[in-house]
Predict the 3D structure of the following.
Amino acid sequence: MKLRILALIVTLALLAGGCGTTKKIEKTYPPAPSWVKNRPVSSEYYVGVGSAKKTLDMNQTMQTAKQNALADMASDISVNISSNSILSTFDYNQNFSEDFTKTVKAQAEQDLEGYETVGNYEDQGNYWVYFRLSKTAYQKIKEERRAKAITKALDLFDKANVSEKTGDIRFAFINYIKALEPIKPYFTDPLQVQYQGKEIFLGSEISKEINKILTSIKIDAGNKQIKVKQGQQPPSGTFDFKVTYVNGTQLSGFTLSASYTEKPLRNSKVQTDNNGIASFSIDAVRSNKNLETITATLNIEGIANEATTDYLLRKLVNRYRVPEASISIIVIKPVFYIISNESNLEKKLNNNPVSEGLKRKIIESGYSITNKEADADYSISVTATTKNKGETGTYKQTALNATISVKDKSGAELYIKQIDNIIGSHFDYAQAGLEAYKEATKKVENSISREIVEMVVKGKVSY
């Protein structure tokens, strides 16, 4: 009897379980600690609280929260710029300030060590971690690292100083820039040290030495002003720039960057030779302006790139004023002389319509015409003639053929254009010839005059 009752109870239990719905058991979480809701503030510790949304990869979630906590802790470390720091010597703009602040924070995150985990917490969708770092411990670590950085920087500073005194200015310049690298995390600090029996603020002293070298380098342009005919190439050596130090030493191995107001130069960067000279060239002055300028500047960017790979340091060095020199180019437009031989049906014309049209357009383009061939830079020869072409119905036709050529002072032909078979129609042959001249004059005014001017501007280009 008892066995039957027990079997019945088991059966009823199984039936009840099979007919019911399966309930999902949800994980419960304790209440969030106070540091999750309100970020702690401490006079003894730097605090960092970071969170991350949960993902399937919990390890990655925890790593993200940790990085966020360290970033939060780094932001808790204030940055004050000392009046004797290197940054105080610059009137840096907003962009530079933001770049520097980001770099300082990134460096602070890297330097954080000895911190402890105060707590962590998670709920359904997020994970939090709470770190803290003793301000006293951090300051001790920072002082040790700063002392090592100062030692490295001071060694490079001394090498640069010795090189400068022995006349190796380029090597000195590079080492002064290199000396900035170890102390970059401490650009806001005064970095007070003893050097050769004197007390100096290392960062600002390096900056002063860099500035002193730059103000002691002189770039001299042999020609302050030159005159060049439009379309002509300036003679070799016209754009020579000599680089010397304040004591007169010729500086070799320095790169100058040149800019030309008319257009970019093909070879805009040239290194000084053993005589301290960097030579630039222009294939032809083609500008329509009356004045152009070529300016040579010390390429401090190249020196900075050679000295360091650090982006912020390069940007900092590029903020120094650099020496430069300029040469003014007075652009003189060439003078034309036109000789003409134009005839209509073998009868010489007095008004010479083709050459007059050409003359008119050249003057409109800003050039002048002379009556003396000896005074001209270019001589234009116009030869034109017409001949009978027969009749078409009641109309008589003529055909015009012309040749236009341009020569320079040496007699070299720079341009030649053949005009063939321009037809003129009229009831009279002579009048038909004049109609052909009208068409030829239009062609000269609309295209050939422009080609001649372009030939001069572009510099001996044959069409």
